[in-house]
Design a protein that fits this description.
Layout (H helix, E strand, L loop, with lengths): L5 H12 L5 H8 L3 H14 L18 E9 L4 H12 L4 E6 L6 E7 L2 H11 L6 E8 L10
Antiparallel strand pairs: 1-3, 1-4, 2-3
């Protein structure tokens, strides 16, 4: 397991916001030699601490500017019901995130579609047809002043 010392913390902080930074620039930013920095990054990749690098996409430019979070309650709390729901959601390209959570409902989804018409279609033709779903509460995103997801 990789130790997260102050130098590795600095590296991770920079990579989280600038994944394409060159090793030389990263080393300079975190105060290490280029070779020491590269060794640390490679070790964090090897150990799985760094699982990959992603491009941040402009969803609106791609036709997915409507974002909603959806709280989903199931009518049956069994393992089989949860697994069936998760299989169905895995097939829905509109769902960008699915989280099994604690509280009054079982799941929180992040859905990205083109517009309200597309969202209504997803709501009624995808979620509304799943036999496990008992309750759906939508939260439409009006703006995202802070979003640090990769």
């Amino acid at each position: 397991m990789t130790v997260i010392d102050p130098a590795n913390e600095r590296i991770l902080r920079v990579l989280a916001t600038e994944a394409r930074i060159s090793n030389a620039a990263l080393a300079e930013r975190v105060g290490l030699s280029a070779s020491a920095c590269l060794r640390r990054v490679q070790e964090m990749e090897r150990s799985g601490l760094i699982r990959g690098y992603r491009a941040m996409l402009d969803r609106e430019a791609m036709g997915g500017g409507f974002v909603a979070y959806i709280a989903v309650g199931l009518n049956d709390h069994s393992k089989a019901s949860q697994e069936a729901f998760e299989r169905a959601i895995a097939l829905a390209p509109q769902v960008r995130e699915c989280h099994n959570i604690t509280g009054a409902i079982e799941y929180m989804l992040r859905v990205e579609v083109a517009d309200l018409v597309a969202y209504k279609h997803f709501h009624t033709e995808v979620l509304g047809t799943l036999p496990q779903v008992n309750a759906i509460t939508s939260y439409v995103v009006m703006g995202s002043p802070k979003d640090e997801r990769g």
